[in-house]
Amino acid sequence: MKYIFIILIFHLMPFVIKSQNKDSLLMIQKIEEAKIKYDQKNIEQTEKLLNEAEKLFPKYTLIYQIRGLLYYEIGNYNQSILDYDKAIVFSTDNNKIDDIYYKRAVSYFRLQNFEKAKQDLQKTIQINTNHKEAYIIIGAIFQEQNQDKKAIEMYEKAIQIDKNFAMAYYNLACVYDNQKKIKKALDNINQAIVHKQKYTEAYLMRIEIYYQQKKYELALKDIDMVLSYFPQQFQSLEWQAMIYWKQKQKQKACESWKKAAQNGSIDAENHIKKNCN
Fold first, then answer.
1. 8 Å CB contact between 124 and 102
2. Which of 33, 38, 83, 217 could lock 64 by a disulfide, CB 3.0 to 4.6 Å apart?
3. What is the pLDDT of residue 5?
């Protein structure tokens, strides 16, 4: 089953503390340092700084929002949910809590707790009817439950909110591709690429469709486009090799497989052993 969804990268909100004292200023400093460490992918230091900030101000929502995202990023979804629980409890502005419910829903989704995810997504939409990402996750849940019609409705709802929302077009394309409705899949994947130029996943889906249709030149054109953006994108190199092999260009196929293998493709390594001297 093909689908993809997104979670927004968390951006630090302005710090608002009514009474600033030594502890509050130190807490702010630690959160700022934690954000820097997070951007540097230093997980251990990020967690350490946030834990220290929590000890100084254990009811400060922002700490749990950042740490919840941190745990999500490393795949600790249960711990992520616990932090979002605290972020919701300690939030002082119910009108700005929609994104916390949304992020907790994504963690529930990862754990395949679809009922809890739906509950949080409904809360998200109740607070913010234009939260387009929430409709994407609801659609993904319906896809998991083989309810394609409802999934399509959710993705179309997201497009109604934002006609330039490339992810929604891509998800629609995934549904239609799974249904073997290739024309509709291509129509939507084309829209996704129009609205997001460097959309690797969208190009890869279109490459696969062109490959299945034996439209090799169109596929190679898309492959060249992906590689111009991301020269080490090994999946596009794999498709390039497969097309060259179909065209009986063995040397070029092997060169592409070797590049793909150098960038982490195990399948390419197997093709090299089997087909290349």
1. yes
2. 83
3. 55
